[in-house]
Structures are given as C-alpha cells and as structure tokens.
Design goal:
By secondary structure, the chain is mostly helical. The protein contains 14 helices and no strands. The longest helix is centred in the first third of the chain and has 39 residues, at about 50-90. The protein is globular and about 65 Å long. Keywords: Amino-acid transport, Auxin signaling pathway, Cell membrane, Membrane, Symport, Transmembrane, Transmembrane helix, Transport. Pfam families: Aa_trans. It comes from Abrus precatorius (Indian licorice).
C-alpha cells in the first residue's frame, strides 16, 4: 500500500508539474504574439484572445482572487507562523509557557500586515528584485530544511501508510476524497497571473524580444522548484505517512499542520533554534510573496488614478494606495480567518482555469494553428481537460463542505 500510494502521488505531482510548466511556456510565447504589442497583464491577454467582453468575464474575478485572495492567505499564514514562532521561543523544554503575554490572532495578522506594507513602498516590480530573491532563497532553504530534518530524525512511532479512504464509504464519497487529494496537488502551483507582468519588466525590441530570457529564467526557476517540491513530498510521506495534514488550509494554521505536527512528533529531537529558524524563513517568504502578488493590484490602482486625474502618482498617493490595500486585505483576513478552508472551492474555479486551461485556448485563438492538426488537437484537449478538472474539483469541494461542514469563525482568527 505504501508503494502504491507513493507511486500515485508522485505520478499526479509529476503530471501537474509538467502541465502547468507547459502552460507557462505558452504564456511566455503569447506575451509578444503580435509584433510591437506586449500583453503585460493576464487580463489584457485574455481580452485579446477571447474578445473584450468574454475575456473580462473569464479572467477578471480569477485574477482578482489570485492577487488579493493570495495576499489574504499570506496574512493568515504569516500571522499564524509568527504566533507559532512566539510560542516556540517562549515555551521551555517541558512545554511550559513563560509569563509573557502573547498577542491575539488578529494582532499577529496586524503585525504581519504592517511589515508587509512597509516593504511594499517600493515603486514597481523592477525594484522587487532583491525582495523576490530573498523570498526564493528562504523558500528553498525552509523546504530543504524540513525534508532533510524529517529524514534525519527518522519516522515517529505508529506511522501508517494505509489509504485514508474508508471501506464503508460510498463510491461518491471515495471519488470526492480522491478529487480533493488531486486538488491539493493541482492547487500547489500558482503564479501564472503575475508571470506576464514579470516578463513585462524585461527589455524587448524587434531584434531581440523578451521571450528567450524569460524562458531561460522560467527554466532555471523551475529546476529549483522541482528540487523543493519533489523531495518534500516524497520524504514527507516517508516520514509521516497519513499523519501529515491532508488539507491545504492546515499547512500552518491548524493543529494538524506540517509546521505544528513536526515539532510535536519530534519534540525531543528538534531544538528550538531549528524550529525557530524554519518559522523565520517561512515568515520571510510570506512577506516577499505578498509583495509580488500585491504589486499588480498596486499597478492597476495607480493606472486608474493616472487615467482619471491625468497626472502621475505622487509618493503620497502611492503610499495611500498601499495602505488602503493592506488595510483591506487585513480586514478580510480577520473577518474570514477560515478562508483557507475554502481554498479548494475557490481555487477550483479560479486557479485551475487560469493555470491549466485558459493558456491553451488563448494559444489557439492568437496563434491559430492548423485546425484539427496535432498542435490544435493537443491544446484543445488539454484546455477542455483543465475546464473539466475545474468543474470536478469545485463539485468535490462543495460535497466535502456539505458533508463535514465549515467552521466559520468570523472575526476570531
């Protein structure tokens, strides 16, 4: 059973990795599909491919959610990790808490948001190179530390690799659980909504477009992503089996999440310094990721201001825009701290089409390969499969919420 579960998990992870990497390369090529025109926003590319009205209908909400919603998720994750860091540093070797007063969940969210908005005063994506580099280094480091420590410390007692599917469950329940598991893997990859904006920062002319340097950058970055994702998945399953968290929402904030279960299972083997270092790396990564996903929103708000006022944004206006967005995402994070529990539902009809389906259809609309040819059939089939996957994941998420319910702890992070 162990080999079977690991094999199916590895196959699904590999298929999702290759699939979304293929659609990324499609977007890289479509960025300058028309000579002299650069589609530096996903929405603009969708409007060019599908038409103005259909492009907006298909892409506006997914892009808004994948930018603003991801920032809300990062506040919840970063604030929750700050709370875990405080608890780790405060507790003694016997698990007894010190007398220091910990902040509430909302206060930790506020601390994270204030630091994020302070960093967000950088004017544009071109100035984010150092922040992005820091986020990449910290992500690689904490992923490597996590799987390396898991292997080094060995498997805890009573690790089970048996399937979590109950024999007494109905076929519908089993299919729903399988789809939810696939959804966890599929939703692990994101970033297509900001890819074109990043490519838009590269120089381009008629002799040498941004396609080649962007393609090289994507290839190198995904080598590092593979070095993080695959060892973490394989070593994590080997070390913890089905004791590891099975939902995206409980990676950090739930009591059964990876970063809380690890010190609990190895509390006598892992030092406070090791866990504290991992938490700091996670917080740093969340802060840098917040900047990358928030910058397109800042650009759009500044563009709207410039269009209406017919003047450039001053530093005061730019600061006010960032404060407004930071306050809005903080308010949503405090109001809906259970939002990660809806990740499968929201991601099913936002992230999945944007990542796995739309690029294929946009390629067909803009490049116009030979109808019924091999390239046309492949992209059409892949796009349809992506849309079907989106529908199935949404249906499975709805059934799971209806069956298990939702802990809607409004204003109680």
């Amino acid at each position: 059973m162990s080999c079977t579960c690991r094999a199916w998990g590895s196959v699904c992870l590999s298929v999702a990795f290759v699939w979304q990497l293929y659609t990324i390369f499609l977007l890289v090529h479509l960025h300058e599909s028309v000579p002299g025109i650069r589609h530096s926003r996903y929405l603009f590319l969708a409007m060019a491919a599908f038409g103005k009205r259909l492009g907006k209908v298909a892409a506006v909400f997914p892009i808004m959610y994948l930018s603003g919603g991801t920032c809300v998720m990062l506040i919840i994750t970063g604030g929750g990790t700050m709370r875990l860091l405080f608890k780790t540093l405060c507790d003694d070797e016997h698990g007894q808490s010190c007398n220091a007063h910990s902040l509430t969940g909302a206060e930790w969210f506020l601390v994270f948001t204030c630091v994020a908005i302070l960093i967000a005063q950088l004017p544009n994506l071109n100035s984010m190179a150092a922040v992005s580099f820091a986020g990449a280094v910290t992500a690689i480091t904490y992923c490597t530390l996590f799987w390396a420590l898991s292997v080094k410390k060995g498997r805890p007692n009573a690790v089970s690799y048996s399937s979590s599917l109950s024999r007494d469950s109905s076929p519908v329940a089993k299919i729903s659980d399988i789809l939810n598991a696939i959804g966890i893997i599929v939703l692990a990859f994101r970033g297509h909504n900001v890819l074109l904006e990043i490519q838009g920062t590269l120089p381009s002319d008629f002799k040498e477009t941004s396609k080649e340097p962007m393609r090289r950058g994507v290839s190198i970055s995904y080598v590092f992503i593979a070095m993080c994702v695959f060892p973490l998945a394989i070593a994590g399953f080997w070390a913890y089996g089905n004791q590891a968290s099975t939902t995206i929402s409980s990676l950090i904030i739930d009591d059964k999440g990876l970063f809380t279960s690890f010190p609990q299972l190895h509390k006598k083997q892992v030092t406070k310094f090791s866990m504290g270092a991992v938490y700091i790396l996670v917080i740093t990564h969340c802060l840098s990721s917040y900047q990358i996903y928030a910058m397109p929103v800042f650009d759009n708000l500044e563009l709207r201001y410039t269009t209406i006022k017919n003047q450039k944004c001053s530093r005061v206006v730019r600061t006010c825009i960032r404060l407004f967005f930071g306050g809005l995402t903080f308010f949503i994070a405090v109001t809906f701290p259970f939002l990660p529990s809806l990740a499968a539902l929201l991601g099913g009809f936002t992230l999945v089409p944007v990542t796995y389906a739309y690029p294929c259809f946009m390629w067909l609309a803009l490049k116009k390969p030979r109808p019924r040819g091999a390239v046309w059939c492949f992209n059409f089939a892949l796009g349809c499969l992506g849309m079907l996957l989106s529908v199935l994941l949404v249906a499975a998420a709805i059934r799971t919420l209806a069956d298990k319910g939702l802990k809607a702890n409004f204003f109680k992070p």
